[in-house]
């Protein structure tokens, strides 16, 4: 009997080890974006009646994307971020980020964009580990984040490496819960709750964190890459993470960050015509709604195989049965 059980396990092992293929999202449309001179689209959010974008090379503007037939025009809305007297990051990371900002532009390095129900826009600064709120009317202001947020994140292994810090932000419609995504080496999710005019951790700021690597999409040869988060969205009491190296979107529990289901967009993003020279042209921005997902691609000023030189926004249809489907 024991030998029979072992034999059955050996037969079943290859089946159990076989990775489950993800459902592919269907591409509805593709939109090159004119007017973002610095390129490097890094965040998307639907606010009011329009889709908005931010570039991590520009510290003083958002872009309203005016829809056209195919090519969309970016219309700049300028703002002035107030001085930030202190930052929660250690000196070494601050200085390296500051020098990089001088060289390439974007000292604040805005890496994500979100929007609440009344039209406040929220930008996460990777360089400062801070969040800027831009109201529909009035002056921008930095959110009063808790001093312990970065300390807790670093104690969990996150926010230790240059250019691998905070990469995504999501706010609930009421503007009372805020989530932040740590990019990689280790990646993770943080959550903050609004109390009066400041933000607090309810228990721990850290929802989840993980390290390690996983295979890239088969179209890229399946080479092992660091697990990462490139964007974050909140929709109908769920978090959605953009995982660029794996070319997928995952739905997660907002209470602990546990993954529930994932969908791939590799089939459309990695066609021969849409390829960039490695490692450029990765997806950086995400917004999710009932009809589908907006995904923004950061071309880093590089040219795609088909000759396209502008940042690109894709519209993918929601999966059949909707984003809440369990299987």
TrEMBL record:
Signal peptide positions on this chain: 1-17
Q: For the Phytase-like domain, which residue ranges apply?
A: 38-185
Q: Which InterPro entries match?
A: Phytase-like_dom (IPR027372)
- Which of UniProt's keywords are assigned here? Signal
| Metal-binding as UniProt keyword | no
Q: What is this protein called?
A: Esterase-like activity of phytase
């Amino acid at each position: 009997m024991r030998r029979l059980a072992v034999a059955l396990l050996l037969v079943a092992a290859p089946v159990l080890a076989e990775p489950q293929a993800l459902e592919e999202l269907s591409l509805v449309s593709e939109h090159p974006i004119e007017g973002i001179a610095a390129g490097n689209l890094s965040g998307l959010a639907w606010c009011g009646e329009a889709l908005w974008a931010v570039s991590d090379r520009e510290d003083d503007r958002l872009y309203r994307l005016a829809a056209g037939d195919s090519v969309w025009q970016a219309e700049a809305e300028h703002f002035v971020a107030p001085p930030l007297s202190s930052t929660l990051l250690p000196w070494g990371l601050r200085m390296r980020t500051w020098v990089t900002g001088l060289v390439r532009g974007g000292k604040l390095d805005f890496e994500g964009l979100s929007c609440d129900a009344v039209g406040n826009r929220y930008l996460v600064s990777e360089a400062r580990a801070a969040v800027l709120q831009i109201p529909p009317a009035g002056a921008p202001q930095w959110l009063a984040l808790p001093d312990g947020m970065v300390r807790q994140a670093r104690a969990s292994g996150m926010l230790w490496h240059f250019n691998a810090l905070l990469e995504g932000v999501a706010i609930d419609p009421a503007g009372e819960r805020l989530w932040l995504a740590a990019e990689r080496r280790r990646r993770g999710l943080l959550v903050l709750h609004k109390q009066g005019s400041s933000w607090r951790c309810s228990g721990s700021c850290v929802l989840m964190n993980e390290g390690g690597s996983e295979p890239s999409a088969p179209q890229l040869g399946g080479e092992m890459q660091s697990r990462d988060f490139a964007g974050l969205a909140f929709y109908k009491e769920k978090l959605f993470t953009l995982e660029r190296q794996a070319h997928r979107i995952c739905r997660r529990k907002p209470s602990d960050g546990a993954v529930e289901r994932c969908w791939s967009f590799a089939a459309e993003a990695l066609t021969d015509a849409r390829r960039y020279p490695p490692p450029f042209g990765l997806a950086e921005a995400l917004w999710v709604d009932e009809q589908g997902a907006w995904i923004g691609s950061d071309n880093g000023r590089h040219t795609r195989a088909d000759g396209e030189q502008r940042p690109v926004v894709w519209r993918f249809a929601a999966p059949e049965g909707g984003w809440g489907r369990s299987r």
